[in-house]
Amino acid sequence: MGVTLAIVALxxxxxxxxxxxxxxxxLNMNVGFLISVWVNVLFALVLFLIQMIFIKDEHFQWHxxxxxxxxxxxxxSTFMGRWFFFETIDKLGPARASAFQVSNxxxxxxxxxxxxxxxxxxxxxxxxxxxxxxxxxxSFRGQSSVEKEIASSEENLITxxxxxxxxxxxxxxxxxxxxxxxxxxxxxxxxxxxAIKDWNEPILGGIFGAALGLVLFTITNKSSHHFLAHVKNxxxxxxxxxxxxxxxxxxxxxSVIASMRYMPISIANLITMSTPxxxxxxxxxxxxxxxxxSIRTIIGIILVLLGICFIIL
Length: 313
What we know:
By secondary structure, this protein is mainly α. It has one domain (2-51, 63-159, 175-312). It has helices spanning 2-24, 29-55, 64-92, 94-101, 103-116, 122-139, 143-153, 167-173, 175-198, 202-220, 227-233, 236-259, 265-272, 276-286, 295-312. Helix 2 packs antiparallel against helix 10 (202-220) and helix 3 packs antiparallel against helix 9. 51% of the residues are buried.
């Protein structure tokens, strides 16, 4: 049961990555993010009503600790993690953004070991090395290449080549954002795993996280003040794409939360984060290799997946 739910989450997360890339080309990400989170909440509420009416056999019981854990997890995943992820897709493209998210299992495994008592073996440490090497091969494009792209999109932003690997370059290239997204999701995953083991309400957990993310983003984003006007005047396909992102992302979150009830948090997360297996070939054909996917990219993804396989085994 746990493996099936994790695989469903994998397919949904992969779909969300591709849909986000399609949507970001048509509609501003700030507006799109808000659309996505609104759909998260509304779609999850519909699922919860269906569960309560047609599926639930026992009386509903409130669990304060589970509620708080789901809520804090929402801050890290729905708000921080997703915002960083959207920015990463915009800067790196879906294949590389998805590959960076595979560092999420590494962070999740370490955090789960530290705070949940899930053990790290020597094979896990070897896997970490494989994942880091693979991510480097997938994401590294050379500083000069990144600077050219930045210069073409933001006139006079870079006046002379920088040396080494300054924080400024890491931020503008999207690499730092990618790791922050991955770390935020990892923290959220461990919190959700802890919550679901005490309170078996994955849909409700998804609702709490999405609702908090919606409130925080509404407060911090200027686009929220004229949200309906922005949606009305926006590209209709862009709105639909972001709405589809909302359905895919909340469904994936609920599936992975449910899977953690039946298997270790780190293993469930490893399966769901294997998105490059799906995203890379789809991205290659759908976007006609706009991201410059090369042999090095493929080797990097293979190394990442080998690392994941070692951890699972």
